[in-house]
Amino acid sequence: MNGARTPQLLPRIFGRCVHLSSRVKAAPNVSRISVDTVRWKSTAAASTMKGILCRTTGGTEVLEYTNLPIPTLKSGQVLIKNDYVGVNYIDVYARTGAYPSPKPEVLGKEGEGTVLALGPSGPDVTYHDIQIGDRVVWMGSGGYATHSAVPAETTYKIPDAVPPTVAVASLFQGLTALTLVTESSHPKKGDWALVHAAGGGVGLWLCRLLKHFGVKVIGIVSGAAKWAEVEAAGADHVLDRSGEGFDLIADVAKLTGVASGGIDLVYDGVGRATWDMSLAVVRRKGSIVSFGATSGAVPNIPLSVLSAKNITLARPTVFNYVTTREEFEDYASRLFGMMIENKWTPKIHSLYPLDQAPKAHQDLESRKTVGKLLLDTMLAGEAAPGSERAIRAARGE
Ligand SMILES: NC(=O)c1ccc[n+]([C@@H]2O[C@H](COP(=O)([O-])OP(=O)(O)OC[C@H]3O[C@@H](n4cnc5c(N)ncnc54)[C@H](OP(=O)(O)O)[C@@H]3O)[C@@H](O)[C@H]2O)c1
Q1: How is the chain split into domains, by residue range?
Q2: CA 313 to CA 310: how far, in whole Å?
Q3: What number does CATH give the domain 10-169+324-394?
Q4: For 35, 261, 346, 387, which has the most beta carbons within 10 A of its beta carbon?
Q5: Are 230 and 199 in contact (CB under 8 A)?
Q6: Ligand 1 atom closest to 220 (CA)
Q7: pTM
Q8: pLDDT tens, residue by residue, 296-313
């Protein structure tokens, strides 16, 4: 099995996939659903699936590619035959134990695929408008597998104009960034924002959205390889923290013209390593949104540090913004609506075959990745002849 594949199509993915689906639509007897029908009929009777089991906390060696039972549906859940699943830093925290979760566990908070079955019905149970055969993206748990049982509440039909790979590469990190800039903070046109780890999955979305709202964005990265993507996502200035002579406070002062900081909004998903910098560059009455801890948790801080500049501090999680069906639908439709309108495509770092999940974790932790990492649940050579995936695979995508 080869390692990660870097898709070369990404700037063109909208064009290509739209072309594919329009060909499919033009053929009277071949709909997108009927192509998939073959696959879900053939898998519907199966009782086992392939997945990555995280047996205990630890390094990537605790991730085991194995046969697992297909999950049994509870009320309100739908069974998905996954095509692609997203890898997020939260999966690393779950694996290492930084965010405790029961083990053994199938990691993975999001995916894309076809609805195979709905759970049991009942008087108060609703599946919203989700139907068997729908092509959907979802947020939930148990993603690193060919099948997942996920809440119908956080399952969303992929709009026709958005290719499935684009949809799944955008969902979790796009929704996170959207909630951070609409609920955790209130950016105004002309504000200065600073985004740590700007070349990461959430970081690129933050740059894109903040720019869209008229904010002046400074993106912090480590390594020149991330520079171009961060600029392409909309950052006005990029600073390389691994560069010689990097001095965040002095560099930011030069850009903003304010000696003591001048940043209205700081977005910090790095945590321990950047907290002091965030505190130093934020302006009087500015905001810090601390939303993650890739370098470790921010040590306990006395609340009085905030009053030194009357700083507003938020420590949010997307799961508490996107909780109800209404919230999920509202945010997902806003995200995909903005993507369609502005022709935004996420940067995908690599597609990894499912059994290469340990490699995906190693790469994410190495700080070398730019944008989104996806697992492809169909291992190389398994794509059904004539399927959209087989066509993409034949093109080396
Ligand atoms: N609160 C929420 O609801 C929520 C939801 C989703 C994600 N998040 C958080 O958002 C952050 C970004 O997540 P993501 O999935 O998009 O990951 P990511 O940003 O694509 O990858 C992590 C990046 O963090 C940076 N980093 C800085 N110090 C690091 C260290 N010591 N070890 C590893 N990485 C380090 C690296 O960028 P540089 O090398 O360029 O610094 C690295 O590329 C994470 O903290 C995650 O927990 C929070």
Answers
A1: 10-169+324-394, 188-315
A2: 10
A3: 3.90.180.10
A4: 346
A5: yes
A6: 40
A7: 0.88
A8: 999 999 999 999 999 999
